[in-house]
Amino acid sequence: MAVGLGPLPTLHPVAGFELGIASAGIKRPGRKDVVVMRCAEGSRVAAVTTTNAFCAAPVLVTRERVQGDVRYLLTNTGNANAGTGAEGLANARRTCAALAGLTGVPETAILPFSTGVIGEPLPVEKIESALQAALDDLAPEHWAEAATGIMTTDTLPKGASRQFRHAGETITVTGISKGAGMIRPNMATMLGYIATDAKVARDVLQNLVLDAANKSFNRITIDGDTSTNDCCLLIATGQTNLAEITEASGELYTQLRQAVFEVCMEVAQAIVRDGEGATKFVTVQVNGGGNHQECLDVGYAVAHSPLIKTALFASDPNWGRILAAVGYAGVPDLDVSKIDVFLGDVCIASQGGRAASYTEAQGAAVMQQEEISIRIELGRGTCSETIWTTDLSHEYVRINAEYRS
Amino acid sequence: MAVGLGPLPTLHPVAGFELGIASAGIKRPGRKDVVVMRCAEGSRVAAVTTTNAFCAAPVLVTRERVQGDVRYLLTNTGNANAGTGAEGLANARRTCAALAGLTGVPETAILPFSTGVIGEPLPVEKIESALQAALDDLAPEHWAEAATGIMTTDTLPKGASRQFRHAGETITVTGISKGAGMIRPNMATMLGYIATDAKVARDVLQNLVLDAANKSFNRITIDGDTSTNDCCLLIATGQTNLAEITEASGELYTQLRQAVFEVCMEVAQAIVRDGEGATKFVTVQVNGGGNHQECLDVGYAVAHSPLIKTALFASDPNWGRILAAVGYAGVPDLDVSKIDVFLGDVCIASQGGRAASYTEAQGAAVMQQEEISIRIELGRGTCSETIWTTDLSHEYVRINAEYRS
Q1: pLDDT tens digits for A177-227?
Q2: Is B83 on the interface with A (CB under 8 A)?
Q3: Is B405 annotated as a binding residue?
Q4: B208-254 pLDDT, tens per residue?
Q5: Is residue B74 very low, low, confident or very high in pLDDT (cuts 50, 70, 90)?
Q6: In chain A, what is the straight-line distance between the N-terminal and C-terminal CA atoms, in Å?
Q7: Closest Cβ–Cβ partner in A53, A328, A353 for B336
Q8: Closest by alpha carbon to B300, among B224, B206, B362, B203?
C-alpha cells in the first residue's frame, strides 16, 4: 500500500559505522529482529527522544548515556519495552550488559532501542542469544539489511543517502528509519539512525539533529499518536581527514547541514508513504499565519481530522470538511473571510466560501492523484508550516484492529 | 449499529410547543427533511452555538435573534448552509421570511437551523415549498416525528423526557437531538432542542442550557471534528401556572435543573450510541487531576486516539495504547509512577506499568462488552472529568468515505 515508495536507494557505507542483524525470534521464529550497530572509537552521537511522559525504558537508558562515549547501538523489534516499569529498565540494562560482555566495551557505551508491542516484558534471553550472530554480521555495507531488521508494521524498508565533496574528500550521510503507525513525533520520532563520517563538534551535532528532526520527523503524522519509543540519532564517526566541523566551518557546515536535512526528510516522508493503510501521500501547507504555532494548529487539525482523511481515501473533494477543521483549530480571532484553500493548484474555497471558479470536476481530478497537496492561506501574516500525512483507509482499521501492536 | 439505543422513549408533549414535519426533497424525494417548531407567545429561548470559526449562516442568524421574541424554529436537513458566505446568509434569512409570510409573525421571531452537507447552496425554493405542509402538521404530540425529521446519518431518532411535580403542577422537559459524525461539541452541540412548559427567567434559562450542555453535549466525542452547525436550544414556554423560576426558587429550580440535565445527558449519550459505525459505547473517566483541564486533556487524548479506538473495535485490551495516549496528552510534569488505569473494574496498569494482578483474560472479558469504561487515576489532585465516545470501525470509514456529508 506504500504511496510512491520504491525499493531502497543506494545507501552509501559510512566509514567507521557497521551494522549487523540477527534473529532472536521475538515475535516469529526466523524473523530478523535484532540489529547491532558499531561506531568507531571517537564517534559522537546526538539524539532527540520522545516527549511522551510514558517513555520506554530503553529511551531512559539512552538519554543517560548518549552524552558519553558510545560504541554500540542495540535495537530489537517485536517488543517496545514500554510501560514495563522498573523491571523494564533492568531488562534494557541487561541486554546492554550482555553485549558489553561480548565486545569488551563498557556497558555505558551501549545504547538500547526497542520497538513493538507496549507493555509486554522484554524477552531478554532471546535477545542475548542473538547478539553474537549480529556481531558476526557487522559490516559497513549492511544498511539495507538493518533497514529491514528494524521494521515492525512497515511494509517497506526506509533509507536515504547523500554524498558531497569538500577539499578533495567525500563526505557521506546515510540514514534509515522505521515507523508506520503511532506516528505523531513530538521533538523526536519513531526510530531513525543517521550516520556521517564527518567529524562534528558535539554541540553542532546536537543542533543538527534537533533542527533536522524538527523540520522533518516532527512535521509528519499518521494517526496523531505519539509513540513511547521515538528516538532519532545522528552519529558522526569522524573518519574523514577534514577538521572538526563547527558552525564556523562555512560551506562545509552548510553542506553537511543540508545533507543531514535531506536524509532526515527523505526517511521521514518514507514513513508517511508507508503509513498504515495509506493510499495517499498528503502535504498540508499552511501559509499566511501570524505565527508558526497557529500554522501548526491548523495543519494538524486538517491532518488529524478523520472526516478529511476518509474523504481523501475516497478521493472525494469534500472541501467543506477542510473549512470545518480550519475553523475548529483554535486560532484566535480567525477571520474566515480572508481564508483561501487550494487543492493542488485548484482554488476550492476563497474568502471563506466556495470559490466562484471552482467546479467539482476540478477537485475530483486532484483527489484522484496519489500525492495530494492541501494549501491553506490564512491571510494573517507571513509564517508558514508544512505537515505530511496520509488518508484513513479500511486498511488502517484492519491493521490496528487485527494486530496487537 | 447503535449501541444500547432502543426505540424512542415516551416523549411527553410540552404545553405551548408544537412540532410539524414535511418533505422538501432536499437530498431524496419524499424524505422528511423540514421541521417547523412553534413556541407559544411569551416563550423564552436560550442557545449555545458552535465555537467553530466557520460557523454556518443559520447559526449567525440564530445568534442575532435568540435574545428577542422567538415564535418558530425552522430546521432543514440535507444541507448545512455552511461555508456559503454572504449568499448563505441571505438564503437563511429568505427561508425565515417565507415562514414569516405564512404565519404573520415578524421575520426576526424565526430561528433557522440547517444540517447536512457543507458548502452547497441552500435549496431555498424546495424548503419554501414545504413550509405550509409543515405548518399544517404542527401538533404537541409530534416530538417523535420531529426527532426523525432532523436525522442525517443518524440510524435512530434520539429523544428523552422527564416530568416532575411541584405544588400540584406537572412540569415537563422533553428534548430531541441529532448527530452521528463530525461530533466534538465545543460549548455547543450538533442539533438539540429541549423544551419545557415551565416559566423561566431569561438569565436562568441561559445558565441552565450552558451548564447542562457543558456537562453532556460538551463531553461527548465521536471523531473529534467540531461541526460548523452545532446548536443546542432550551425553550421555556411558560405555560404552567407556577411563578417564574429563578435561582432563588429553591426546590423547583433544583428539580428543573436536574430534569434539563437528565434530558440533555440522555440525548447527548444517544448521539454517541448512534455514532457513525459505533460498535462500543465508551466512558472515559479521568480522576485525580490537578485541575479540570488536564483531566479533559487526558480524556480527549484517549477518546481521540485512533489506535485505542481500533483496539476497542477489535475488543483488544491493548492497555499499552492507553498509557501512550495518557503520556502524550500534554499534562505538565506527569509522574507516570502514580498512574493507575482500570478497564471496567479491572486494574490493568498500576504505577505506570502492567498491574501485577492483571491477566489478559480479565481485560478481554471487559472488552467483549458493548459498554466499556476506561478509568484513569492520575494521582495528582481531586478533579474529575468524564467523556463519552465510540470505537473506530470499518463502518466509520465506509460511511465517511462513501457518502458526502
Answers
A1: 998 777 776 655 578 899 999 999 999 999 999 999 888 888 888 887 888
A2: yes
A3: yes
A4: 999 998 888 888 888 878 888 888 889 999 999 999 999 999 999 99
A5: very high
A6: 19
A7: A53
A8: B224
Best of A87, A115, A187, A225 to mutate (most B CBs within 10 Å, chain B)? A225
3-state secondary structure of A294: helix
Q: Which of B151, B161, B248, B165 is nearest to B203 (CA)?
A: B248
CA A256 distance to own-chain centroid: 19
Helix (H) or strand (E) holding A253: helix A251-273
Rounded CA-CA distance A372/A366 in Å is 7
pLDDT value of position B344: 95
Enzyme catalytic residues of B: 189
- Measure the CA–CA gap between B99 and B79, rounded to whole angstroms: 18
Please give the pLDDT value at position A390: 93
Extract the C-alpha cell encoding B308: 485505542
Residues of chain A below pLDDT 50: none
Closest residue on chain B to A399 (Cα)? B310
The shortest CB-CB distance from A54 to any of B53, B84, B336 is to B336
Q: Are B161 and B263 in contact (CB under 8 A)?
A: yes
Answer yes or no: is pLDDT of B351 > 90.
no
Strand order in the sheet with B281-289: B353-354, B346-350, B340-343, B371-377, B281-289, B383-390
Residue of A nearest to B336 (CA): A54
Structure ipTM: 0.80
Domains of chain B: 17-271 (3.60.70.12), 281-402 (3.10.20.340)
Contact state of B400 with A307 under an 8 Å Cβ cutoff: yes
What single-letter amino acid sits at A264? Answer: C
**CB interface of B with A, residues 95-154, below 8 Å:** 117-119
> Is B318 a known ligand-binding residue?
no
| Whole-Å CA distances, A289 to A215, A376, B54, B328 | 17, 10, 17, 26
User: Chains A and B: how many Cβ contacts under 8 Å?
Assistant: 210
The angle subtended at Cα B320 by Cα B318 and Cα B321, nearest 5°, is 75
| Residues of chain A neighbouring B53 (CB-CB closer than 8 A) | 326-328, 331, 334, 336
Q: Is B25 exposed, middle or buried (0-12, 13-18, 19+ CB in 10 A)?
A: middle
The phi, psi pair for A376, rounded to 5°, reads -115, 125
Q: For residues A344 and A372, what is the distance between their CA atoms, to the nearest angstrom? A: 6
Q: Does the pLDDT at position B320 exceed 60?
A: yes
Q: What is the pLDDT of residue A2?
A: 83
Residue of A182, A352, A353 lying closest to B324 (CB–CB): A182
Q: Is residue B51 marked as binding?
A: no
